[in-house]
Amino acid sequence: MTRDLFDDECSPAPWVQEIGEDAVILRHFAIAQVDALLEDIHNLQDLSPFRRQQTPGGFWMSVGMSNCGSFGWISDRKGYRYVAIDPVTGSPWPAMPDLFYQVAVEAAEQAGFKDFVPDACLINRYEIGTKMSLHQDKDEQDMSQPIVSVSLGLPAVFMFGGQSRQDPVQRFPLFQGDVVVWGGRSRLNFHGVRPLKADLNAPNGQGDVRYNLTFRKAF
Ligand SMILES: O=C(O)CCC(=O)C(=O)O
Ligand SMILES: [Fe+2]
């Protein structure tokens, strides 16, 4: 992708915040693409709707989830896994929009991961009060490929720990347009999202949801 796509004169300047070994937040990285990414999400949800999923242990996750790309991440009583067919629709997951792919690959490159080839994009939909508990992303086959995570909508607090659940956890605010990339020595670090709070400064009717796009190479 050409850098021009990101050179929007009205956008705040991007900057890189290191949060761990081989882990960064690319601040404002996708700020100029926010509206187009949200429009893509709205179109995708007509094809594969958001749904809440059950953990293998029988708990219901609070976050609504859908996927696009060749594979989608699902969870049910049988376990966590990637599948090519959406169990809700019985059809393949919708194709990954070009813009999603471009933003993910460009962000990975910016973070030092040159050959990222995402084949899965999990779309998380957080309403006020929903959260994602500390976990590792470890259902992928190739751990040399990073995770690229794009924030849209309401701000959230991202938790980033170490490779053990007991390691200290840092907290970072994430705003829309921010992209977190972690891989290499941090690939299996525990991470999560604190319960989402309402943004009291947001205009009426706007900003009651956070979306997150998590790109991975599943296979
Ligand atoms: O919503 C986020 O920022 C993180 C999502 C995440 O960790 C995941 O989907 O595995
Ligand atoms: Fe995760």
TrEMBL record:
The keyword Transferase applies. Binds 1 Fe(2+) ion per subunit. Its cofactor is Fe(2+). Keywords: Dioxygenase, Iron, Metal-binding, Methyltransferase, Oxidoreductase, Transferase. Signal peptide: none annotated. GO terms for cellular component: cytoplasm. Pfam families: 2OG-FeII_Oxy_2 (PF13532). 2-oxoglutarate binds at N124, R125, Y126, R210, Y211, N212, L213, T214, F215, R216. Residues 117-219 form the Fe2OG dioxygenase domain. One of its GO terms (biological process) is oxidative RNA demethylation. GO terms for molecular function: broad specificity oxidative DNA demethylase activity; ferrous iron binding; methyltransferase activity; oxidative RNA demethylase activity. Fe cation binds at H135, D137, H191. PROSITE patterns: FE2OG_OXY. Substrate binds at W73, Y80, R81, Y82, D139, R165. This is DNA oxidative demethylase AlkB.
